[in-house]
Design goal:
Helices cover 28% and strands 27% of the residues. By secondary structure, it is α/β, with parallel strands linked by helices.
């Protein structure tokens, strides 16, 4: 079979690998579509702090079951599925507390272990998530949506809460959708006007261009009180500090963006405002299942997030397009196969 490998930063190879042989309790899956995550791009550019090389990327994907052992979940060959790609050890302190998403030895597909950018993969049956009637493209978008849904769940967002999402890339837009599903009034801030138009399309109540007028506009929206919840979806020091600044007294800051730069600030502002500051990592299987039901309801047009689609053999061109993204690209998919 063919697989995409990042051999070192800025170098991609299409490799020939043996077909995977499922172990006991594992299914063989034919990969259909994979989304290129920001983490995959960071691995490609050498800016992903958790990646080692060579690495097969990919953890946002849809697949079709080729073979599966007898199971009590009614999974069978031909089913369209997605999977929980965050492998946890099951024995560390976090896992024993049920916080499997924050496993102390977490291994996410495509980052700490090889991922789904292959024609076929093997997967433990318990990690397979039934597609619930979604098509292959929709299923490839469930994982990044789950990342944002899990993050939003950290903030105890209630109907009418004012939420600021800083960064209108795919994760920020999915955070917008997740916050709107909770009844929040959502403002999205970004440097690029095109991304703000996308945010409007997905239901943002307010959009704010990050320029010299930003401060006054955000103050106008909140009547000078600040936001109940600020979501950082860029992974930059400046945007983290912006979230702290824009949060109301007694408010919450949620961090989704992952970066390598250190941040320096006067921590007394956290005390002065009595802020809740939450990191967010990965997601739970329950997040995937809830979103599959939500997408199946037809109320969230997730495929509008897809900006481009490439054959997997054109992976180098797809990554190059994202590295030089002018803001017009949101989610880019690689097509490995169509459902049989």
């Amino acid at each position: 079979m063919k697989a995409i490998s990042i051999t070192q930063p800025f170098e991609i190879e299409i490799r020939d690998l043996p077909m995977p042989e499922p172990a006991a309790g594992e299914a063989l899956l034919r990969v259909l579509y994979c989304g290129i995550c920001g983490a995959d791009v960071a691995s490609f550019t050498g800016n992903q702090p958790f990646t080692t090389y060579p690495r097969i990327p990919g953890h946002e994907f849809s697949a079709q079951i080729v073979s599966v052992p007898e199971n009590g979940r009614n999974l069978k060959p031909g089913d369209l599925v997605t999977c929980n790609p965050y492998f946890n050890c099951g024995s560390c302190y976090a896992c024993r507390k049920g916080r499997v998403n924050a496993c102390m030895d977490n291994q996410t597909m495509g980052v700490q272990r090889d991922g789904a950018f292959c024609e076929y993969i093997r997967m433990p049956v318990e990690r397979i998530i039934p597609g619930g009637g979604l098509n292959a493209r929709q299923l490839a978008l469930v994982e990044p949506f789950a990342i944002s849904r899990h993050a939003i769940s950290r903030g105890d967002i209630r109907p009418g809460d004012r939420v600021l999402v800083v960064g209108a890339g795919p994760i920020g837009l999915f955070a917008l959708l997740a916050a709107k599903a909770r009844g929040a009034v959502v403002t999205v801030c970004d440097l690029l006007q095109g991304r703000l138009e996308k945010a409007r399309h997905f239901g943002a109540d307010h959009v704010v261009l990050a320029d010299e007028q930003e401060e006054a506009e955000l103050k106008r929206i909140t009547e000078g009180n600040g936001f109940d919840v600020c979501v950082e979806a860029c992974g930059q020091s400046v945007t983290f500090l912006e979230c702290i600044q824009q949060a109301c007294h007694g408010g919450t800051v949620i961090l989704i963006g992952n970066g390598k730069k250190e941040t320096t600030f006067l921590h007394s502002i956290l005390l002065k405002k009595e802020l809740n500051v939450y990191g967010s990592r990965n997601a739970y299987t329950a997040d995937f299942e809830a979103l599959i039901r939500l997408i199946a309801s037809g109320t969230v047009p997730v495929t509008d997030m897809i900006s481009a689609e490439y054959d997997f053999r054109e992976a180098s061109a797809a990554f190059d397009a994202l590295v030089h993204n002018d803001g017009s690209l949101e989610k880019v998919l690689l097509r490995f196969s169509d459902p049989a």
